[in-house]
């Protein structure tokens, strides 16, 4: 009897708990999902060998006067809305002549009518610029204000003008655009790797990528030519290889050699007419020859 009574009491406790939980759940408001006034965006871009990630909130003009009004001149701005804009570099970068170590930074801007100061700050996680402290600045870069013919409704951060070793960071809103160039190290990282691989006993070597890297970055072109010769020795009918060799010869100032190699590439490409790529290489060689007249 005592066992039955105990089971009954436990059952009543359980039923009461379930009822109370159900009643409490019914009193909660349903989930409310509404648009953010300044939606969060994440920009990811690789420049050279550096991965860059920028997380920021994008306010809109919404009929308001922005710079000099909503965002006063002379003040430090969070470069967006809500949390301060966050920038992550996977390797070191150079901005305004200053080497910035790999890491995470807060992006701010001190606003001016004709010039802004773009700021990278050590403290990446902070709300707005209310606790911003210039003592934590890593770099401050002056940037001229560019006036836009057409207004930009939504604040936008872009990375443009991308090259192997450089790009630009652009901030655009209302009728204002500010651009900051930056550099990354590629040659200092890649060249030692190439030299080590080419000096090794590896059976397969990266002749063409290595030669083109040296050509593109004005490194040792005699080495680049030797690597292209090695690649061609493995594939004598590779007209795409002859074209690249001709480019190296042209960069070395060997016009007769470049012309002969380009013509050889054209002849080989014509012999492979069934391959759609052959027509492209005929055009590329003809364009190269036009520069060698």
Describe the structure.
This protein has 293 residues and is an alpha+beta fold. It folds into 2 domains: 40-183, no CATH class; 187-291, Tetratricopeptide repeat domain (Serine Threonine Protein Phosphatase 5, Tetratricopeptide repeat, Alpha Horseshoe). The protein is built from 7 helices and 10 strands. α3 (207-216) runs antiparallel to α4 (221-234) and α4 runs antiparallel to α5. The protein starts with a helix and ends with a helix. Mean pLDDT is 91; it is low at 1-8.
Which helices and strands occur, and which strands form pairs?
Elements (H helix, E strand, L loop, with lengths): L1 H26 L12 E8 L2 E8 L18 E2 L3 E9 L3 E3 L2 E3 L2 E8 L4 E7 L15 E24 L5 E18 L3 H12 L8 H10 L4 H14 L4 H14 L2 H16 L5 H16 L2
Antiparallel strand pairs: 1-2, 2-4, 3-7, 4-7, 5-6, 5-10, 7-8, 8-9, 9-10
Helix pairs in contact: 3-4, 3-5, 4-5, 5-6, 5-7, 6-7
Q: How would you sum up this structure in a few lines?
A:
It contains seven helices and ten strands.
What is the number of helices?
A: 7
**Poorly predicted runs of 5 or more residues:** 1-8
**SSE ordering:** HEEEEEEEEEEHHHHHH
Mean pLDDT: 91
State the end-to-end distance: 112 Å
Give the proportion of residues in helices.
25-40%
Radius of gyration: 31 Å
Category from helices, strands and their pairing: alpha+beta
Shape: elongated
Q: How many discrete structural domains?
A: 2
What share of residues are in beta strands? 25-35%
**Largest sheet, strands/sense/barrel:** 10 strands, antiparallel
Q: Could you give the count of β-strands?
A: 10
């Amino acid at each position: 009897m005592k066992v039955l009574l105990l089971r009954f009491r436990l059952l009543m406790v359980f039923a009461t708990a379930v009822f109370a939980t159900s009643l409490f759940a019914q009193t909660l408001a349903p989930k409310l999902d509404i648009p953010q006034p300044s939606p969060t965006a994440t920009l990811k871009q690789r420049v050279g060998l550096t991965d860059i990630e920028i997380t920021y909130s994008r306010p809109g003009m919404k009929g308001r006067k922005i710079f000099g009004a909503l965002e006063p001149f002379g003040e430090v701005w969070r470069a967006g809305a809500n949390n301060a804009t966050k920038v992550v570099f996977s390797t070191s970068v150079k901005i305004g002549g200053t080497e910035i170590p790999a890491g995470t930074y807060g992006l701010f801007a001190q606003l001016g009518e004709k010039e802004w100061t773009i700021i990278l700050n050590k403290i990446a996680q902070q709300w707005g610029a209310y606790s911003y402290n210039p003592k934590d600045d890593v770099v401050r870069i002056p940037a001229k204000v560019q006036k836009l013919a057409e207004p930009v409704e939504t604040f936008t951060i872009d990375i443009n003008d991308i090259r192997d070793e450089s790009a630009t960071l652009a901030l655009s809103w209302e009728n204002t655009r500010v651009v900051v160039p930056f550099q990354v190290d590629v040659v200092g990282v890649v060249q030692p790797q190439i030299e080590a691989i080419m000096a090794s006993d590896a059976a397969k070597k990266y002749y063409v990528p290595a030669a083109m890297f040296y050509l593109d970055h004005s490194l040792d072109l005699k080495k680049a030519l030797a690597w292209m010769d090695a690649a061609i020795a493995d594939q004598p009918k590779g007209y795409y290889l002859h074209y690249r060799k001709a480019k190296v010869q042209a960069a070395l100032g060997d016009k007769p050699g470049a012309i002969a190699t380009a013509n050889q590439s054209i002849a080989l490409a014509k012999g492979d007419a069934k391959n759609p790529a052959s027509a492209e290489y005929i055009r590329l060689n003809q364009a190269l020859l036009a520069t060698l007249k």
